[in-house]
Amino acid sequence: MASIPSTPLLANELDIVIPTIRNLDFLEMWRPFFQPYHLIIVQDGDPTKTIKVPEGFDYELHNRNHVENLLGKRASCISFKDSACRCYGFLVSKKKYIYTIDDDCFVAKNPTGEDINALEQHIKNLLTPSTPHFFNTLYDPYRDGADFVRGYPFSLREGVPTAVSHGLWLNIPDYDAPTQLVKPHERNTRYVDAVMTVPKGTLFPMCGMNLAFDRELIGPAMYFGLMGHGQPIGRYDDMWAGWCVKVICDHLNLGVKTGLPYIWHSKASNPFVNLKKEYKGIFWQEDIIPFFQSVVLPKECTTVQKCYRALAEKVKEKLGLIDPYFTKLAEGMTTWIEAWDAHNPSSEAAGSLTNGMAKVNLGK
User: Which sites does the entry annotate for glycosylation (predicted)?
Assistant: First the structure.
């Protein structure tokens, strides 16, 4: 068993957000690590269904009725019958940090057989800087036993604030449907003991099943889009959020880390069901990726909200030509920011450029 800190890190500053349609028995395995923290459970699907939560956890549970009562007309921006509904939990949280996990993810073990405290590693990732402007070949230089290698510019060693910690998974890999179909028995058994910063200007496929972020730095951009019921696409919610977040982090000089910690992903979803959800996205992403690779945000965008509004306009202008869905998605992005600001009235000032970007010496 991994050692548990006598005083849990950030116990009063972090919420754990879990989207679900079932009883949360999986929390028993996580009890040693999660019990000190507040849980925000977002119930998807039928709001009349009773979701059972093991005793001893501090939690609040929100279903679709709660979403509609709180947001009114703006509830249209929160997806239904899709794990994208988790972003509602991000919106209602009042904590500085968020960790979100899926209910089919269990505690993994490291190569020595110890349980991995995924939450503790995420917190360590978030509390140490990122290095997006120059790649360190020993990966994260702020980890114990590592440092900046010879030739790394001293002017960049201060790093930038870390906004996102993206964890990985053992056992069932996060594959798309075509890959699932051709590799139905493949399992990820490789434990790579590394954390690295995703370089500036590089996109990545963000997975929401084991993810932590600084809500004050990047929260308004953590919108998981319009997916699921009534939408022509699914299973692109976390990736859409990741592309938006990365563009904004690059613009505001914030960092994104990926690697440790690992969780154990226990259940493979049906590849045929997944293909029905993904097939339009598989075609669309060949246009979506070049859009995000080339998009430039105006210098006047000095907060996450301003960046996100500008990005929504560009989505409507450029991607709206591909399919009317993207015009609807852009409107959802705008509605999301309106809802965020309405329920987090001081967040725009807290996330201003002067709190992150201006403090960092880029050696220019």
Answer: 150
